[in-house]
Amino acid sequence: MTNYQQSQPDFIIIGAQKSGTTSLYQYLIQHPQIVPASEKEVHFFDFNFAKGVDWYRQKFKPVSQNFITGEASPYYIFHPLVAQRIYKLFPQVKLIVLLRNPVERAISHYYHEVRLGFENLGLEDAIAQESARLKGETAKMLADETYYSYNHQHHTYLSRGIYVEQLKHWMQFFPKEQFLILPSEELYNQPNMVLNQVLEFLQLPNYQLSQYDKYNSGEYPAVTPEIRQQLQAYFQPYNQQLAELLGGKFNWESGATL
Q1: 0.85 exceeded by the pTM?
Q2: Residue 231 and residue 9: Cα distance in Å, rounded?
Q3: Position with higher pLDDT, 205 vs 2
Q4: Is 124 in contact with 227 (CB distance < 8 Å)?
């Protein structure tokens, strides 16, 4: 008789947005021992938490001992309530994080919001207005778990790239060994290598895909050197703190656009 585990995620890709999470998830679910969730982005711990954990469990098929399942919702890493919520319900879950050069991530995020119709300002103005748009929003989210912040979801081009603050928050709940934190650029350039790093973290055998398509990637126009330099200067101290936290794994200071 096959022993089936209760329906719940073995792993969650928690972010970051516009950092290759869709591609990585699509690669993972082609592995013969990974069962996909009913959709890639379940968004339980951010948008649907009031629906209850039984609603969430229904998104995963019960799996036998040799199989695992998981989801990828890239807003999780940035949402101020998600880490505590996941820890309370699934303290043993493995957490996968892709971090992209925050300059490139911010630009890609901006054009993503423009494409979806959520952003009407120009890039320079959107960056300049971010602080005013976000003023008090995180405090409201923390004070009222039912409060939804449109600006926190859509207009956080700079804030989402301050990875060190987000990871320090998550590490208040989960030990470092429960995270696999990888540069997005490695996924873009060596997808098979990164896929097998993730599979090793998940304690599954290596797997080779026939091809590695890029999912959810968008083209966007070149930005001015002035804006790029502004963004690089903004993120530089946070990137340095991130390197110190993670042991120097991330080096984006060359300005390479990957």
Answers
A1: yes
A2: 36
A3: 205
A4: yes
Give CA angle at 238 (234, 243), nearest 5°. Answer: 140
Determine which helix (DSSP H) or strand (DSSP E) holds 99, and give its type and residue range.
Answer: strand 94-99
Cβ(46)–Cβ(79) under 8 Å? yes
Distance CA 38, CA 58 (A): 8
Q: Which pair of tokens denotes residue 197?
A: 């790093």
* Beta carbons of 198 and 180 less than 8 angstroms apart: yes
Distances (CA, A) of 125 to 29, 96, 132, 157, 220: 39, 33, 11, 12, 17
Residues 182, 199 contacting (CB under 8 angstroms): no
Report residue 70: phi and psi, to 5°. -175, 175
Q: Give the residue-averaged pLDDT of 148-157.
A: 97
Residues sharing a CB contact under 8 Å with residue 124, sequence separation 6 or more, in sequence order: 227
pLDDT tier for residue 219 given thresholds of 50, 70 and 90: confident
Which residues pair with residue 12 across a beta bridge? 71, 95
**C-alpha span between 73 and 160 (Å, rounded):** 14
pLDDT in tens, 86-99: 999 999 999 999 99
Among 162, 56, 40, smallest CA distance to 106 is for 162
Q: How far is 251 from 183, CA to CA, in rounded Å? A: 9
**Measuring CA to CA, which residue among 121, 155, 116, 117 is closest to residue 135?**
155
One-letter amino acid for residue 74 of the chain: P
Domain ranges of the chain: 11-246
Identify the CATH number of the domain defined by range 11-246: 3.40.50.300
